[in-house]
Amino acid sequence: MTAPIYLITLLPLIGFLINGLLGRFLTERQSGMVASGTVLGSFLISAQLTMGLMTRPGKNPHFVQTLFTWIEAGDLQIQAGYWFDALAAVMALVVTGVGLLIHIYSIGYMRGDPGVRRYFAFMNLFIFMMLNLVLADNLALLFLGWEGVGLCSYLLIGFWFQDESKARAGMKAFIVNRVGDAGFIIAMVLLYHQFGTLNIQQLANAAPFALAGRAFFTAVTLLLFLGATGKSAQIPLHIWLPDAMAGPTPVSALIHAATMVTAGVYLIARNSVLFTLAPATMNTIATIGILTAFLAASMAITQKDIKKVLAYSTISQLGYMFTAVGVGAFSAGIFHLMTHAFFKGLLFLGAGSVIHGLGGEQNIDNMGGLKKHMPSTHLTMLVGVLAITGVPGLSGFFSKDEILWGAFVRYEGFSWIWLVGVITAGMTAFYMFRLLFRTFYGQPRWSNQLHPHESPSVMTLPLILLAFLSILGGYVGVPEVLGGMNHFHHLLEPVVAISPWGLAGGHEASHFMELLAMFISTVAALGGIYYAYKVYILQPRMADELRDKLPGLYKLSFNKYYVDEFYGAAVVRPLVAFSQVLWTWFDDRVIDGLVNGSAALIGSGSRLIRQLQSGLIQHYAAFILGGVIVIMAIIYAS
């Protein structure tokens, strides 16, 4: 007998309430244990349901649970219900599994912080909201989780709100996401107007037979993609994610690996039927995705903050995922989402271990030579770097190459999207090994006052487990061309739509072409590794020489193509100026003028009428006589 689905979400909510309401009665360790224990419970229930799903008969096995009627207004009825199928199982296991390791790691990382109980309460709330997002059986409940993770990101990015810059980073994430969320809301209104339901499965069943034309589905899916663009930090709404590094490092790992930023990819995969009915939207997604992957990789090359290098890396890898779903390779996108959760969670927690060991230092120019001081962190981060680079045999190799192969199949050959994806793979290898070499190799560049040390076991154990997942996680999706069965693809096959251009259809390419494409991308990755080794190990001065030779490109990359500055000049400052006008002129003169003028008019009238109340009987008699005369004159005149 399987456990109820609602327990998966309920347990983190209980942890949030315990730490939020009773946290002052708990020690730091107890608070961390409560938070970690509730997530562990959710993971175990998710695993039990997943095993039950595997033995369930039917073409598309699933569990459904309706809790209660949530919203009822006229014909609109929205249930609070959960849907657990293969896609939900993958997402629930990733959210709770990686989330659990991040919670355990946080016990060591946040030790001594005065707000640690508030921290664990917010972390549990984050997991609760993300689980509602991935388990919801309708778009309204999904949107509740969608907005919930946005709220939690605001609370955790600005966790140290006493620092104004950190508080502003949280506000920036919250505001930028509202732009995309507006598109999501409009899409839900249009879908309900057309189909009379927001249930995801009912929409998927009705959409292919709807009378609505292609223009309707293009509009709706573009609006949904706008929401996904904000949540998953794709251009042009990517600007909030690097600033999200203002929060504690485990928060960065949770946002980048297990929760919020993957929501956009999940939204598209979950509603894949709608997207396959809009080819123009699919092409737009693939284009935005690959451009995001390339541009973010080019920004990561010059960053000096260890966390910001990883932040731009996340944006780039998310671009790969969007490219996958854009070319119809939905299972490949979710496969990369899963493997990315392993190695990016590992890399962020490894970066946190480095920062912890260096007393808060985040600039890789002030590191170097840490290999012998932090052997466990170095070894595990090396695994993470190899995995994200796509070195054969590790998880990232299988998922990244499946995406590139999907682009090859969709556009029937060596298209520009495939080519940019290969180039980006080489760039990824370069900037990730740049980070590794600058952090752990070469001569020490840290202050003499610092004493680097390895992190405690409560922090290194999650690193080791994530390293194993980064190695082994890809073997559930070994392609047939390499002798595997591609189990992951077949697992999701009944859940996601079969695209006309997906890996199972469209261009019939030979195994030779698939191996050739795989070989080319691997050569690009190995080339990036070698070039990083040459620049930062063999010829350390070469980096400065390249920067001096190409100052324009360096500044462009280092300053993130001045996108923030452009938004500041084109959007933020004009809005602030317009708000000032509304405040100083319209509000002060028009609004206050109307209010104050009305009060003055009533006051003047009151003073005039008050003169009639003199208290003298002769005045009243005169008024009465005057009134009688006026009335008689009116009667006589009529």
Structure description:
There is one protein chain. By secondary structure, the protein is mostly helical. The chain has 3 domains: 1-195, no CATH class; 278-558, no CATH class; 566-637. Helix content is 71%, strand content 3%. The chain is built from 25 helices and 2 strands. It has helices spanning 6-22, 28-54, 86-109, 116-135, 139-157, 164-195, 200-206, 214-231, 240-243, 249-258, 263-270, 272-276, 279-300, 306-326, 330-357, 375-389, 395-410, 416-440, 457-472, 487-492, 511-538, 542-549, 551-558, 563-610, 617-637, and strands at 63-73, 76-84. The chain has a two-stranded antiparallel sheet. Strand 1 and strand 2 form a beta hairpin.
Low-confidence sequence ranges: 502-508
End-to-end distance, in Å? Answer: 94 Å
The whole-angstrom Rg is: 30 Å
Strand order of the largest sheet: 1-2
The percentage helix is over 70%
Q: What count of structural domains?
A: 3
Task: Report the principal-axis shape.
Answer: globular
Q: For the report, how would you describe the main beta sheet?
A: 2 strands, antiparallel
Structural class: mainly alpha
Order of helices and strands: HHEEHHHHHHHHHHHHHHHHHHHHHHH
> How many β-strands, per DSSP?
2
Mean pLDDT over the full residue set? 91
**Treating each run of at least 4 consecutive H or I residues as one helix, how many helices?**
25
Strand percent estimate: under 5%
Question: How are the SSEs ordered, and which strands pair?
Answer:
Blueprint lengths: L5 H17 L5 H27 L8 E11 L2 E9 L1 H24 L6 H20 L3 H19 L6 H32 L4 H7 L7 H18 L8 H4 L5 H10 L4 H8 L1 H5 L2 H22 L5 H21 L3 H28 L17 H15 L5 H16 L5 H25 L16 H16 L14 H6 L18 H28 L3 H8 L1 H8 L4 H48 L6 H21 L1
